[in-house]
From TrEMBL:
One GO BP annotation of this record: mRNA splicing, via spliceosome
Protein name per its UniProtKB record: U11/U12 small nuclear ribonucleoprotein 35 kDa protein
GO molecular function annotations of the record: mRNA binding; snRNA binding
Biased composition (Basic and acidic residues): 146-162, 181-278
GO cellular component terms given for this protein: precatalytic spliceosome; U12-type spliceosomal complex
Domain of life the protein comes from: Eukaryota
Upper taxonomic lineage: Eukaryota, Metazoa, Chordata, Craniata, Vertebrata
Keywords of this entry: Nucleus, RNA-binding
Length: 278
């Protein structure tokens, strides 16, 4: 704990993926990819790394002229490079600014950080690629900072420093619950395990519990059988009533048909009688 620092002095991808730098195994694939990466700084990059600032979170519409205008307020600029896509030529949202003097670098890092340019809040820090040992860029799973939405935050930098880890030493009293009674109970339990009495008690307990469960299930099944028996009896009682109702309906239909036949016969007889009279 004496050599703890909120900012990483040596870049370790495993520690960078942990909020307090205490992880012992990677929690996502990006951390694992950064651990196995063999990244070497680009030798084509020119300039003094100790006098270079990294400027991120730029507005895509921000130009080199605008950056030169803003950062020239803190000192004389030797070199400024806005990183653009090789194919489209669009800005990637970050740049590098190299000053002529060290005091200009310190001043710009302090005052230009969180400065709003073209409606975007800037992030300004020292260049890490050539100054921080073991550095792995973001595209290989490393880097620093990040957004919560991505789920791949990296700690140990200016934007997201390490949180101090909490180390609580575990004593025997805490382990046994903080009292001598718990230790005594633990010793008694251990002795009972040795002589086999505790295991027999548990077997007895489980056996009695199993018998109780069987009895409860038997009662539930008996109640369920009684319920279905009552429903069946009620359905049997309703069947004669349904038969009587159907018989009545058949009788009423038969009577109605007979009445119609009689009326039709009477009507035909009246018709023939009237014709004979003529």
């Amino acid at each position: 704990m004496n050599d703890w620092s909120p900012v990483a002095k040596v870049y370790d991808p495993l520690k960078a993926g942990s909020i307090d730098g205490t992880d012992v195994e990677p929690h996502d694939r990006a951390v694992w990819r950064a651990m196995v990466a063999r990244y070497k700084p680009n030798k084509a990059v020119v300039g003094d790394p100790l006098l270079t600032l990294f400027v991120a979170r730029l507005n895509p519409q921000t130009t080199e002229e605008k950056l030169n205008e803003v950062f020239s307020n803190y000192g004389d600029i030797r070199r400024l490079r806005l990183v653009r896509d090789l194919v489209t030529g669009f800005s990637k949202g970050y740049a590098f600014v190299e000053y002529k003097e060290e005091r200009s670098v310190v001043r710009a890092r302090r005052d230009a950080n969180k400065l709003v340019v073209d409606q975007s809040e800037l992030f300004v820090d020292f260049e890490q690629e050539r100054t921080l040992k073991g550095w792995v860029p973001r595209r290989l799973g490393g880097g620093q900072g990040g957004k919560k939405e991505s789920g791949q935050l990296r700690f140990g930098g200016k934007d997201r420093p390490f949180r101090k880890p909490i180390n609580l030493p575990v004593t025997m009293n805490q382990e046994w619950g903080g009292g001598s009674r718990e230790c005594e109970r633990g010793g008694e339990r251990e002795e009972r395990y040795r002589d086999g009495s505790l295991s027999r008690e548990r077997e007895t307990d489980w056996g009695s519990r199993g018998r109780r469960d069987d009895r409860d299930r038997g009662r539930e099944r008996g109640v369920e059988r009684e319920y279905h028996r009552e429903r069946r009896d009620r359905s049997y009682e309703r069947e004669p009533t349904r038969e009587r109702e159907s018989t009545r309906e058949r009788e009423s239909t038969r009577e109605r048909d007979d009445r119609r036949e009689r009326d039709d016969r009477r009507h035909r007889d009246d018709k023939y009688r009237h014709r004979d009279r003529r």
